[in-house]
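Structure in, sequence out. Go:
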């Protein structure tokens, strides 16, 4: 991995989940041992994802990490290791109502969305169908014009304004007393941009999205899970 400094003084790494730590095949076989080596060297590993908290909790347990969880693109924060209660940062009823209205405007729009919606507290997610532009245009003329429509490549999220991965990290890092300038974030999609801009360092593992690459400090040579393994190996060589 080119460009990574010979010395990098950080306290924490925050990883996106889908497309970064796992894909439809699961974890990369080298992932868990490498992440546990980082934790053994004093680097806290945390997760920030568009997934719901019940979806992410088993992933955190499988990785054996000590960091927190930021779920629903920043809407839900849970730091069980530090004994903090679950923090809910937005009201998910408005995104759900907006989705219900969209189902009356778009033929074939499945308001049920993705299966994990049953656990969502702060947003509503639709199956990725490439209709995000149409959804934005329709919502722009309604009482839900302030809501955001964000595509991650895995789902289309309808979210409340001011709620993103940066907002969730502000709460989570504040509870821990960790300076964001001493945090490295790693992700692959548009919803990772606020996290990249907030943290002191950022690494993109997807060369296919120009907006993400332009914001990131570094880009791995490989994409996706292989890129994450590339980053982990590089970090273990300098930390």
């Amino acid at each position: 991995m080119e460009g990574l400094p010979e010395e990098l003084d950080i306290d924490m790494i925050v990883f996106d989940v889908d497309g970064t730590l796992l894909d439809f095949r699961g974890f990369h076989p080298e992932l868990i041992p490498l992440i546990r080596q980082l934790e053994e060297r004093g680097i806290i590993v945390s997760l920030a994802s568009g997934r719901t908290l019940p979806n992410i909790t088993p992933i955190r347990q499988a990785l054996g990490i000590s960091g927190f969880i930021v779920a629903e693109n920043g809407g839900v924060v849970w730091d069980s290791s530090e004994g903090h209660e679950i923090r809910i940062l937005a009201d998910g009823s408005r995104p759900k109502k907006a989705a219900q209205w969209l189902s009356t405007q778009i033929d074939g729009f499945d308001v049920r969305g993705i299966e994990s919606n049953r656990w969502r507290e702060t947003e509503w997610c639709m199956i990725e169908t490439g209709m995000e532009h149409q959804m934005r245009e329709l919502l722009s003329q309604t009482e839900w014009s302030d809501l955001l429509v964000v595509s991650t490549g895995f789902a289309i999220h309808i979210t409340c304004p001011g709620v993103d991965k940066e907002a969730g990290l502000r709460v989570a890092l504040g509870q821990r007393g960790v300076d964001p300038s001493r945090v490295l974030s790693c992700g692959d999609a548009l919803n990772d941009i606020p996290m990249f801009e907030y943290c002191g360092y950022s690494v993109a593992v997807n060369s296919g999205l120009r907006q993400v690459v332009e914001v990131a400090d570094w880009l791995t040579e490989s994409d996706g899970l292989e890129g994450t393994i590339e980053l982990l190996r590089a970090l273990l060589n300098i930390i």
